[in-house]
Design a protein that fits this description.
Elements lengths: L6 H18 L1 H14 L7 H13 L10 H9 L5 E6 L4 E6 L20 E3 L2 E2 L2 E2 L3 E3 L3 E3 L3
């Protein structure tokens, strides 16, 4: 069990929660988290309970659009080993993701039901101006604005 909860797990968990808070917006994340904590105070819970409460907060927020449910987005981050590295070709607008491996020659022997593809929120700027958030939903996509 100690291998399941090491510094890598905690660091990834913190980064994933920060990303989640950013794409849901801080107020929506806080609303969902508060609801979750109040509901499960002094009780047992599973991670999907958090996704449910965050989804309720999303559903109660007009104008907040995410491309998939909180469950679908977050399961790819929490149920897959590692994380993606994103590459952007600024000439063509092509955005790609690839499973990050510290040793690029290593072989991944643990299959993923998601084929090591993540739903990735991408914030970007053009000429110093924030642009609308873009979601990379496949291994590769071409984004044009």
């Amino acid at each position: 069990i100690s291998e399941m909860f090491n510094s890598i797990s905690y660091n990834k968990g913190a980064a994933v929660l920060r990303m989640l808070s950013e794409f849901l917006t801080e107020p929506v994340f806080a609303q969902g988290l508060s609801s979750y904590l109040n509901t499960f105070a002094f009780k047992n819970t599973v991670y999907t309970d958090l996704w449910d409460h965050l989804q309720q907060a999303v559903d109660n927020t007009p104008g907040l659009d995410i491309p998939r449910s909180v469950h679908e987005i977050m399961n790819r981050w929490t149920l897959q080993m590692g994380f993606p590295v994103v590459t952007v070709d600024t000439r063509t607008g092509t955005v790609t993701q690839k499973h990050f491996l510290l040793d690029p020659d290593s072989v991944v022997d643990r299959p993923s039901q998601f084929n090591y593809t993540w739903f990735i929120p991408i914030k970007w700027m053009k000429n110093g101006v924030d642009q609308q958030q873009y979601w990379l939903l496949d291994k590769t996509d071409t984004h044009s604005s």
